[in-house]
Amino acid sequence: AGRPLAMWAAINPADRESLQTIVHGFATKVDPAVYDEVSKLVGNLSKTLGNNAKFFAGNPMLNQQGKTAEEMESEVKSVVGVLDTLTKSSLASHAGLASIDLEGFLATSGKDLMNKVMEMSKQEDSPIEMPDFDEAEIGEPEIDGDTATIEITNGDDVDTVNLKNVQGQWWLDFSEELAA
Fold first, then answer.
1. How many CB atoms lie under 10 A from the CB of residue 3?
2. 49, 84 in Cβ contact below 8 A?
3. CB 147 within 8 A of CB 173
């Protein structure tokens, strides 16, 4: 199961504050009425898909991959689960977006959302690829002053994690990503 609070805790406090500021800044740039109408549209889409899952699952125009109706229905229900989670979260309204506490979101709806997306990723031929962390190999840290890198190998994928030492503690370093 997803543990977004563990990821949040691994980000240094300054970067967490920056992320919070970015989200709140985004809310100031989005028209509240448009945001709320799009959210309603997503909610209506979710209801329509959910109420008609069998129809969509059995429609040959939508099933170009030759899956069974049961497989397609399961996929439709997974999409509905993600959309429902979004439209029932604090992100469902502009006011919620503008005042969101990311840590609180990740403890509740964010965790639910991550788990739903992880469920979707386990379906055959899913366009969502989630790594299997049970197979991951974590290399030794390479420390250079107050920065460090760690290579994580998962099958053929190799990712480098950047860390920064802040007041004697190592934190994930997102400074390059936040600057972009």
1. 12
2. no
3. yes
| Residue 166 vs residue 51, higher pLDDT | 51
Task: Give me 148's structure tokens.
Answer: 């460090």
Which of 173, 167, 163, 171 has the alpha carbon at shortest distance from 140? 163
In total, the chain counts a number of residues equal to: 180
Query: What one-letter code names the amino acid at 143?
Result: I
Q: Model-level pTM greater than 0.70?
A: no
Q: Other CB atoms closer than 10 Å to residue 21's CB: what's the count?
A: 11
Q: 150-165, pLDDT tens digit by residue?
A: 888 877 888 888 888 8
List Cα–Cα distances, 154 to 56, 107, 136, 174, in angstroms: 36, 27, 4, 21
Residue found by looking up tokens 């439209």 in the block: 87
Write out the two tokens for 131.
């790594």
The residue type of 138 is: I
pLDDT band of residue 134 (cuts 50, 70, 90) is low
